[in-house]
Amino acid sequence: MAEIIDGKALAKQMQAEMTETVKALQAQVGRSPGLAVLMVGDNPASAAYVRNKELACTRVGIRSFGKHFPATATQAELEQVIKDLNADSNVDGILVQLPLPDHLDAIALINQIAPHKDADGLHPYNLGKLLRGEEGLQSCTPAGVMQLLKHADIPIAGKTAVVIGRSILVGKPIAMMLLEANATVIMAHSRTPDLKAITLNADILVVAVGRPQLITADMVKPRAVVIDVGINRITDYEGQSSLVGDVNFDSVKAIASHITPVPGGVGPMTVTMLLHNTIWSYCQQYGTKYN
Ligand code: NAP
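Above: inputs. Below: predicted complex with NAP.
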């Protein structure tokens, strides 16, 4: 049976350490780190994510400068808000909660965020740094995956890692991070003709697709490390709704060496790395090292 990589426990431990760090830095610097989460409209899933992020900020001592806008907010209005936050010395991190209503251009908005306040690591400047293997703000979910691998003592160098999914939010950055850690990285996506032939090579399999239980035990190499990024809400025949990942957890845990559950695996680490990025930006301002 696979060892379960417990993201909830690691997130709790890291957030407890952050609380101490923030307390000490706050005493030195005289202000708390600040994060502004911009949300537009009333998508219930986004509202829950934003609430979660703001609660986590409060727990570790980060001030929230959250701004919620009606679905009718204009591009110009939001760009002005981002400009004001860029100039606000109490704000260290800015994030635009995605998805946005159709009339808004998310990429253009993200490009307005000052790169040193880009808490989600999605600005082209920070993505460029990642591509070059340079230190910088990194996308939260992939950075959280790397923390999970590190804390579970999973060797990466020399291993074959397969990443399924090539989004700019998850798949591409995680592939870059694994490459930087000296894995041999293979990427698969919706146009990969024989997914199983690829996944069976993986010592480390990262699945970020958004298809409930796409990966079954026959697609996994025995003793592989399986990281399930997917979050899918499904409804069973009795009308009960639940969250599942992209991996068939029950069958795959019988064959893998390590596996992340959904919920309680990658999800809690995403929020944790957002807090990490905010503290990192804050420390950069004061010339303090924070890893
Ligand atoms: P996305 O932008 O929709 O990208 C999905 C990727 O999966 C695409 O690259 C797509 O290929 C690929 N794909 C789709 N169907 C496939 C198939 N049958 N076989 C192989 N590849 C396939 O999604 P995302 O933003 O990366 O998110 C992926 C999942 O992670 C979602 O369930 C999302 O909710 C979850 N997520 C979780 C967290 C967390 O904190 N745990 C954070 C972010 C996202 P093409 O490029 O060819 O279309």
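The chain has ten helices and twelve strands.
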